[in-house]
Amino acid sequence: MHSLSIFTVLTSFSSCVLGQWSTWGPPNPSPVQPSSSSISSTPVYSSDATTYTNPVLEEVGADPWVVRSGDYYYITYTTQDNVTLLRSSILTDWNSAEVKLVFSPPENTSYTYSNWAPEVHYFEQYQKWYFIYTADVDPDHPSPQQDMLCDYTCPAVNHRMFALESSGSDIWESEYSMKAELNTYDQFAIDGTYFQHADKLYHIYSCWYTNQTSWPAMLCISEMSNPWTVSSPLSERLIISKPDQPWEKTPYNRTINDRLSSNEGPEQLTNPYTNQTFVIYSAARSDNRNYCLGLIELVGDNPLDINSWDKNEAGCVFYENPDEEVYGVGHASFVQSPDESEWWIVYHGMEDYLEGWSARTIRAQQFTWDETTGWPVFPRPGIGPYDVPSGQGS
Q: Which one of 2.40.50.140, 2.30.30.40, 3.40.50.800, 2.115.10.20 gives the CATH number of domain 13-387?
């Protein structure tokens, strides 16, 4: 893991890391409908359990982001209508978790609708937490005048990235307010994440060539001066990955055009033993069985130089498992076990892929590191039962 003197983000495995493409489809129901800014119920945890099964939350849920702070894990994910945070001491059971409504957008703003893929990061320099997430001025229904300018239909043309700021250093007790819209050059932007390297901060997100291109959806990177300000001009924005491989297209190896070809949900992942830095991202289309994870490695010193990136073109590094009826796996985040001896991937997947977005649920499994290549070794996605994380319940 990089030692950062300017920015220190305590993210999920994301302290070492730091994921997804959201949805261009029917809304996901919120996990709860809290009536106040925070609900601190007394949860009932089965902390003495030695095994668990997937999914770890019995609700429709996608684009999970998990971070550990103190004695608790915190998870946030796409709810469409707001930004919600759950708290649990148990990584593998969120069904009795405490719930906090972090932010409910007001009407008639550029961030009122389609709240997707939230992440929450802690910046030591400011002693505050920052949520970064996607939102839209309209519920994916741009005007015909705007839509006709797109190469293909473009319901998400007005999606942009936003940052919320905490009132203090406590992730749970803080109040959160809108800090800023991140500059994405007045172009489509979803699934943004913070990326850190050599004491510098960057924004990586899913982008288009122009605001009317629609497809393909690629991965772009820009430099930031702080968690709410992009400092790179458009001329310095770099495309680090395009969906140019057969497994990144929908349907597989589509040759007609780039429609539905996607790279999204990027997440930084750093090998704590070798200090290798990766971007794990989602490829193909989030509403079908082929959705999977790809890998790009930072092999140079300048993230804004395309020669500093090496994309794995061999195929998905995490993909469907028909033997256990797990499909459409992607938009992952990473976190350590309670005793910090293990690494875990938290992701969404489907059982009935014919239901598309509404079939997605949140799952978790342990992963390891390859001692030769330094790459993450992800498991086959499955149901279980699996052993609970080391140190859980102790």
A: 2.115.10.20
Identify the CA nearest to 282 among candidates 224, 347, 236, 226. 347
The closest alpha carbon to 178, from 268, 266, 82, 98, belongs to 82
d(CA 180, CA 192): 14
Quick one: what percent of the chain has pLDDT higher than 70? 88
Q: Which residue has the tokens 């007005």?
A: 158
At 49, the amino acid letter reads A
How far is it, in rounded angstroms, from Cα 312 to Cα 298? 11
The verdict on whether omega for the bond into residue 105 sits within 30 degrees of 0, i.e. cis, is: no
Span of 43-52, 333-342, 371-380 with lowest mean pLDDT: 43-52
Single pTM value for the model: 0.89
- Give the chain's end-to-end CA distance (angstroms, integer): 27
DSSP 181-195: E---TTS-EEEEEEE
Cα distance between residue 318 and residue 309, in whole Å: 20
The rounded distance, in Å, linking the Cα atoms of 305 and 303 is: 5
For 303-354, write each residue's pLDDT tens digit. 999 999 999 999 999 999 999 999 999 999 999 999 999 999 999 999 999 9
Summarize pLDDT for 135-152 with one digit per residue, the tens.
999 999 999 999 999 988
| CA–CA gap between residue 147 and residue 155 (Å, rounded) | 8
Instruction: Point out which residues pair with 66 in neighbouring strands.
Output: 75
DSSP state of 272: T
